[in-house]
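Hi, here's the filled form for the chain we discussed.

Project: internal
Contact: R.S.
Residues: 760
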Amino acid sequence: MGRYKKHWFTLIGLCIVMFSLLGYFGADIYRSAPPIPAQVVTDNGKALFTQDDILDGQTAWQSVGGMQLGSIWGHGAYQAPDWTADWLHRELMAWLDLAAKAQYGKPYAELAAGPQGALRAELKAEYRGDGVDAQNRLVVSERRAQAMAQTADYYQRLFSADPSLQKSREHFAMKEDTLPSAERRQQLTHFFFWTAWAASAERPNSHVTYTNNWPHEPLIDNVPSSENVVWSVVSVVVLLAGIGFLVWGWSFLGKHDEAEPVAPARDPLMRFALTPSQRALGKYLFLVVGLFIFQVFIGGFTAHYTVEGQRFYGIDVSQWFPYALTRTWHIQAALFWIATGFLAVGLFLAPIINGGRDPRFQKLGVDILFWALVIVCVGSFIGNYLAIAQVLPPEWNFWLGHQGYEFVDLGRLWQILKWVGILFWLVLMLRGVMPALFKKSGEDKNLLALLTASVGAIGLFYGAGLFYGERTNLSVMEYWRWWVVHLWVEGFFEVFATTALAFVFSSMGLVSRSMATSASLASASLFLLGGIPGTFHHLYFAGTTTPVMAVGAAFSALEVVPLIVLGHEAWEQWRLKTRAPWMENLKWPLLAFVTVAFWNMLGAGVFGFMINPPISLYYIQGLNTTPVHAHAALFGVYGFLALGFTLLVLRYIRPNLVFNERLMKTAFWGLNGGLVLMITTSLLPIGIMQFSASVSEGLWWARSETFMQQPLLQTLRWVRTYGDVVFIVGALAMAWQVVLGVFQRDATDVPQGRLQGAAS
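And the returned structure, exactly as it came back:
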């Protein structure tokens, strides 16, 4: 540790404390998850359905795409309704009509304000008071049972091929006969009911529902709780305090007087003879851009479903490639190509760290890993298709088809194989890193140690996605899902990227090793301080208790803090271009990294905090404000980072490569301009209009068929096409540049001499 002892103790201490919080309140999620009743019965003893029926409904929901077709508890896709909010409102209105006809002889809508108010008071008392008894039974009134049956009938017809609801299916981007089995459609309604019950029934000894009063539903006074408001205010205060302390610490504690090292006359990394494993990385880069282009085109295809729910410019394609499938592929392809870009840069660095040599059989390992990635990609895509087409037997769906959960949609078998592949990458990395790490040379190895730790975390933490099963309680499942989506991606990938870049720039002699080490350790501490317990900000309304909301709101506000100074970081990175003439050859990878800093600030910082305070997320969870953050952060940050790594590796494995300025300018401005247009002309305006509707009427209205099919919203969805086209042009230019580089034949790629001890 040496001179960095304080940095290391700070990082290790923070990790211990933050993971303790994550684990302690994770155990609370297990204890306090909404119960799944053993039986649902009427007050006269009539059995309606059982726990197994609800769980069978959960598996049926998974098989049609789950979160890729509408959403549950606000998590999922945005074209179809949020099934929780929609079911709840439909059942409440059915109950009010039944009660009005029984007591006043006319529909609820025809009653005067006084009788309507009296019925709503009865409605609230019944629904918020319906909890499970000591025998784990949920007892409902005969009237509620009738309302449930009416609501279930609508959903059974909606998920079938009933011609009376064909227009609704088109508006929701659902294919005809989404769930062919009548038995499974009935089970599906039981699951939808349970999610709505958890959103309306108060926890024992509490004044809020199992979902912290989400969704907004005025009929039963589902409104933000006092705790929601308090912790929203606290999150803003924490953010301001964090920014203040960061600026103070950076200004007064940072070492700004350290002289910059003299840049070498020649790029040190170009003095290496390419190893066989590095030469083999070209196919990884080809896979990156191949999946990237597929993801971009399937994304545009999916976006078009928001205006023509079953057709692509008049051609009915939904029976073969429905919205749920194309959105699944769109998201999964993104995760695959971004991960491949990260894996490629790691495999490129491993021989450099090892003194310019491949460990024994390293190339074979690199080749095996590549084909394993291809098999997992293709296998999971085929499984997704067979599941949503309802070809797979129900008992095979979770393992081979579609898990139903956004970002971890791939079947469990493919998920396991993906983790095995990541562990294999970890082994390949450690074979190159460990000899250098333990070599007695007297060199400062703190940065290398941090890089090793981040590599290990990436390899191990993806396994968190295996801690839930097909029939796991939804709250528990969400806890582990966000370990993967938030902690693995936004936490440890961020640390790896920061450390890898610091290692590259210090190895080039552009940044001192001490400065790179200090900055990386400090950045890792800042990222993980908010990032680890900040996982809970995804779980405010996922069947969790108030303490989970409190921890998530307070600590996730700190995630924004390091992003505030990324403008300075971007300038510092761009300034490296002038440090040596040969840096001009790295202009475009460097610009990609500068772009990452910008989108990290805007997409992850501004748009992320926009939906972070509980009071904000209460109203906008599940609206188009979420994909504003998702597109700006996932592509703007991790996408550009992966593309930057791709260009960086390409530049070194093809030493004679000269980037085509015209292609790269088209790529750079097309990708950035297209992303800006996509957000500002469509996603954000639609999200703001939905936000207003959610506040005034309720989430059910903001996601309803009537609201979403307004002419203005239809126009805004069409307008998105312009941004999509600009983005596609940029993506094609980027891909073509990489393809030209990968297949370029160099006259020589063996430089004169070899730089020994690159880890120094």
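Let me know if anything looks off before we file it.
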